[in-house]
Design goal:
about 300 residues, mainly alpha, about 85% helix, disordered C terminus
Length: about 300
Amino acid sequence: MASIIDRIKLIFSAKANKILDAHEDPRETLDYSYQKQQELLQRVRRGVADVATSRKRVELQISQMQGQVDKFTTAAQQALSAGREDLAREALTRKSGLQQQVADLTSQRDQLAGEEDKLVQASTQLQARVDAFRTQKETIKATYSAAQAQVQVNDAFSGLSDELGDVGQAVQRAQDQTQQMQARASAVDELLSSGALDDPTGTYKDDITRQLDSMASQSAVESELASMKAQLGIAPAAAAPAIDAAAQPAAAAAAEVVPPAETEAASDAASKVEDEIIAAEADAAPADSDESPSTDDK
């Protein structure tokens, strides 16, 4: 039973010691030790002052008794001069008692003086030790603070601190979500391009559809342009390679079949269009000349 109790005490002591170590700050412990040493030094100094006070009090008593001894000596001399030997003997008896007391007080004064010297030496040595401990304390505190700051910096750089760890996890999650969204968007684009998915809005077109629409648009433009040229009697450009050799006789035959009246009408229309173009260019020229100075002023 006793061994079980001892083990329980040991376990509780170990747990308590671990908890205290986790909450202990060496700087606070050093400051507390320095405070205790200062209090001890103050008690030693008060002891020196008390011993010195006692010594002074004994010295005053010795001085007073020495004065009484001198008085009894004078009184004995006066009694002998007056023929009163009995009074002289009484005075000398009292003088002898006072001298014994003075001797005892002198011995006490010497003892107190010795104790005072010892306490002064102890106070001086203790003061030196306290000063040395204070210097060592400040050095240890500065070293501990620097080491603690270095550990915090290292933890921050290595990502071991809780705050930077949370920030790093948040950044990683944001990157993962961004990559997932990009992959999903790319997959949807590929499915729409391949036709595996239908666009419910009807606005999305794959590459083949866009190319076909572009070719159809260009063909319509070329057809309308050829029709306008035919109406205006403008010969197609010689550099156009799109006209086949088989289509050239048909175009020539179509030009020969055109009646002279339609040819004259087409010529008049072409002349009218040229006049309108020349007039538009003449109207646009003054406007350009008016705008150019303002542009230079700017």
